[in-house]
Amino acid sequence: MKFPDDRRYTKEHEWIKLESDGSTAVVGITDFAQGELGDVVFVELESVGEALETEGTFGTVEAVKTVSDLFMPVSGTIVAINDALDATPEVVNESPYEDGWMVKISVDDPAAIDGLMTAAEYAEMVGA
Question: Residue 76 belongs to what domain range?
Answer without folding.
Answer: 24-112
